[in-house]
Amino acid sequence: MHDAIVHPSGARMRWVELPGPDPVRVYVHGLGATSAPYYAEVAAHPLLARRRSLLIDLLGFGISDRPLEFPYTLEAHADALAEALGKAGVSGASLIAHSMGGAVAIVLAARHPGLVAGLVLVDANLDPYPPLPVPPGGSGIASYGEEEFVTSGWKEVRDRVGPHWWSTMRLADLRGLHRTAVSLARGTDPTMRDLLTSLPVPRTFLYPDGDPPRDLEGLRAAGVRTLAIPESGHNIMLDNPDAFAHTLAEFLP
What we know:
Shape: globular
Strand order of the largest sheet: 1-2-4-3-5-6-7-8
Oligomer: single chain
Distance between the termini: 25 Å
Structural class: alpha/beta
Largest sheet: 8 strands, mixed
């Protein structure tokens, strides 16, 4: 396991690293997740195991620290990730980023362009959304006030998301989880979608077959490669890891 101090409090981000030559691949998890359980099978796939790969956890999640002083906005997550990658000697990386992590990766590419040579977004959040009502299949975390969530609301979320998602969500700092969810619902300015369409690097958006992102044609017109992955839901890398690995092998250097 590797780590780097990324915050004035001394908080560290940690990651599991697979050795190999550059260019580096960086895997970023979604809300309430952690990278190693979601990506290990794919990152070690024979088609992909030839490159240095970092399976990294954002502050407040998984094996990384959870500083109370950290704001847990998408921008703050992107800057902390940039600090970790810089200290790991990473530049010009390919980022493979799922859901909320995709939003962070987009912001990272916009704010720290030297770190990112390409993006593969896995059913990532591109648009802000109102926290109420709770979206079907969603966590609903942003619908709570922070104190309400950390005292009792998390129990309702636990029961709503089910044992699979909760198995990693329970590792997250409750305040960090809530603040991240609120920032994700609020989105960025410009929006993640607008940032994505303006980026000069190669960009790929993967989505479950039958559930395309909003304005799919607009993404394509902006030069974003889009591809539906069969036999998968939101967690594409877990639902169909072989198809996911073959797709990454096609699009990654």
